[in-house]
């Protein structure tokens, strides 16, 4: 349950007005209906999407948050009576690769015999462009993808359902204010553009990915679905959670330098069919959110309202801190055993993956979940 100060924003429907999308704020076990609340800038909340609020910028974000912190009379609905929707129009989705532990682990598994970290990794954040149109809200079923992939020992691909379906536990940063084409966004300007944080599961089909990713990067192996938590936690609610990032001590290109480069002391908890299987710590992530946005725009690429900038898989140094099954099971070689005895090298049909986030002190920041559905055809 969210506390009374986090005040995340989302979009919901409820049976008192069936099918009508409304903007809301979560306050403990209730949802404040912003389409009818007495708050500053009410017109921003009249359209059933966060888009107008996101674009309105930090001064408006702060004014609304201050009014909410002072308290408003309602109306409120019980959290148990609302259905959450994708809260904003996802513009572009970019997925970084900012965790050194994850990048090292995947390097060993995908490129055995080579250097685990590629030479470019330490010089700047690496990323690929994902598929915004298949970003789905928590609770949406994820159909097992099909595509070309190699079978064990084969040299030519077969076409069929992925046998190596995985999750990736990540944090997402949601862009509010766009930037101009041709004008890089400095690390100092991060908070002028980015509104808040959500939890992300970047579902990945490892067999499809391994076959296709050289030389252009992930495509079908990751584009079928990316799940996001429905409540966007404002950065303003996370000021006390800032921690230094490892990259702060490195010798960096000027555009990546950041006064007091900060990450967040957020812990993730990944549950498979209700059982915690790993607890990835975001605080160990090498590249900061501001460095990711500076890198994404350094060539002049513009930000758009609704851009989702994901951290990449969050993996800590410990064996039970990694953010994906491929790491937990060492490429599928060492299946995990769930309480009750079920083994998983990869996700099975009808498995449910839930990833929740909280601060070191326990403050809840949201959850993304999704169930695997059988392949079509
Ligand atoms: O090392 C690779 O070739 C692949 C890495 C990934 O699958 C990770 C990716 O999606 C980025 C991330 O989540 O860190
Ligand atoms: Ca990813
Ligand atoms: Mg994806």
List keywords for this structure.
single chain, 377 residues, alpha+beta, Fumarylacetoacetate hydrolase, domain 2, 5-stranded antiparallel beta sheet, 26 strands, binds ligand LGMQ2O6W, binds calcium ion, binds magnesium ion
Structural overview:
This protein has 377 residues and is α+β, with helices and mostly antiparallel strands. It has helices at residues 51-55, 58-70, 100-110, 190-193, 206-212, 220-223, 289-297, 325-328, and strands spanning 9-14, 22-27, 30-33, 76-78, 82-85, 93-96, 127-129, 135-137, 142-143, 146-149, 158-161, 165-166, 169-175, 194-201, 204-205, 226-228, 233-234, 242-244, 262-264, 266-272, 275-278, 308-310, 336-337, 343-344, 352-359, 364-373. Helices cover 15% and strands 29% of the residues. The strands form seven sheets. Strands 6, 7, 8, 13, 14, 16, 17 and 22 form an eight-stranded mixed β-sheet that branches. A five-stranded antiparallel β-sheet has the order 4-3-2-1-5, with no helix packed on it. A five-stranded mixed β-sheet has the order 9-26-25-20-21, with no helix packed on it. Strand 1 and strand 2 form a beta hairpin. It is globular, with a radius of gyration of 20 Å. The relative contact order is 0.18. Bound molecules: the ligand O=C(O)/C=C/C(=O)CC(=O)CC(=O)O, calcium ion and magnesium ion. The site of calcium ion (CA) has 6 residues, from loops. Mg(2+) binds at residues 202, 222, 226. The active site is at residue 102.
């Amino acid at each position: 349950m969210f506390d009374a100060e986090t005040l995340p924003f989302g979009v919901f429907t409820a049976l008192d007005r069936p099918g009508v999308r409304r903007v809301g704020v979560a306050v403990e076990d209730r949802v404040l209906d912003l389409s009818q609340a007495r708050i500053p800038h009410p017109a921003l909340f009249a359209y059933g999407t966060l888009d107008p609020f996101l674009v309105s910028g930090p001064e408006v974000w702060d004014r609304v948050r201050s009014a909410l912190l002072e308290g408003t009379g309602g109306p409120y609905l019980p959290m148990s009576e609302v259905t959450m929707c994708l809260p904003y129009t996802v513009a572009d989705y970019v997925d970084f690769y900012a965790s050194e532990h994850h990048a090292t682990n995947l390097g060993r598994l995908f490129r055995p015999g080579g250097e685990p970290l590629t030479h470019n990794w330490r010089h700047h954040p690496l990323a690929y462009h994902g598929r915004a149109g298949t970003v789905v809200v928590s609770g949406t079923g994820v159909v097992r993808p099909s595509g070309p992939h190699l079978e064990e020992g084969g040299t030519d691909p077969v076409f069929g359902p992925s046998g190596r379906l995985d999750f990736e536990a990540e944090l997402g940063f949601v862009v509010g204010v766009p930037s101009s084409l041709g004008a890089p966004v400095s690390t100092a300007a991060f908070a002028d553009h980015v509104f808040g944080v959500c939890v992300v599961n970047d579902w990945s089909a490892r067999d499809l990915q391994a076959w296709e990713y050289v030389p252009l990067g992930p495509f079908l192996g990751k584009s079928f679905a990316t799940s996001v938590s429905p409540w966007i936690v404002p950065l303003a609610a996370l000021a006390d959670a800032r921690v230094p990032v490892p990259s702060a001590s490195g010798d960096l290109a000027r555009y990546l330098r950041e006064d007091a480069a900060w990450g967040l002391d957020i812990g993730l908890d990944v549950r498979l069919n209700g059982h915690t299987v790993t607890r990835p710590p975001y605080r160990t992530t090498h590249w900061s959110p501001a460095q990711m946005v500076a890198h994404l725009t350094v060539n002049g690429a513009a930000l758009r309202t609704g851009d989702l900038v994901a951290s990449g898989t969050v993996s800590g140094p410990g064996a039970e801190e990694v953010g994906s099954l491929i790491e937990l099971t060492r490429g599928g070689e060492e299946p995990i055993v769930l309480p009750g005895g079920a083994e998983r090298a990869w996700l099975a049909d009808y498995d449910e993956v839930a990833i929740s986030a909280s601060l070191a002190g326990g403050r809840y920041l949201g959850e993304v979940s999704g169930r695997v559905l059988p392949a079509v055809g």
